[in-house]
Amino acid sequence: MRVLPIWTVAIVLAAAPMARAQSTAPGDSDVATIRDRENVWAEAIVERDSAALAPMLASEYVVAATPGQPAATRAQSLHEIAYPKDSAHHVSRVTFDELRIRMVGRDRAVAEGIVTEVGTTHNGPITERIRFVDTWVRRNHRWLCISSKFAPVPAAK
What is the pLDDT of residue 12? Predict the structure, then answer.
């Protein structure tokens, strides 16, 4: 029987976690989960489906979207998805122009990007580009959005 020197065993044991880390980077599945949530959110806007969005929003969720106005609560946000203030405003498509997700801890992430919303209003067709930042936290093995910030992207001149 061949006996390995202790330093050989130490190197093998030290390298094992690194090999696992290279096969699956920490947070990869979390990033994919949040990306999926962002896609569900976009579809919920198109379908006016607040029930699809509700399980993803934390009870303390707030959104800042209108300059000079107070942040909207979770309940207000869900109501606005299902029943927009302008009933003639309908979004028919939401596409992500940019979507970056950063893990900022084991149980925190920030999704930021730009979406293009295409739809109609009482004045006719519209295309709006919107910059967003969503802050996500993991609670009881579930990712929940706790806050959002939306701002229109000015049209190129």
Answer: 34
**Any idea what the CATH number is for the domain that residue 73 is in?**
3.10.450.50
The two tokens of residue 91 are 């979004």
pLDDT (0 to 100) of residue 66 = 82
Looking at the structure of the chain, the number of domains it has is 1
Looking at residue 56, the DSSP 8-state letter turns out to be G
Closest CA to 138 of 21, 25, 31: 31
- How far apart, in whole angstroms, are the C-alpha atoms of residue 45 and residue 104? 27
pLDDT given at position 10: 33
Q: Which domain holds residue 61?
A: 28-152
Q: Which residues of the chain have pLDDT under 50?
A: 1-24, 26
pTM value is 0.80
- Residue 52 DSSP symbol: H
Measured at the CA of 71, the angle between CA 68 and CA 73, to 5 degrees, comes to 155
Query: 43 and 88 in contact (C-beta within 8 Å)?
Result: no
C-beta of residue 87 within 8 angstroms of C-beta of residue 75? no
- Structure tokens that stand for 96 in this block: 């992500």
Domain assignment present for residue 7? The answer is no
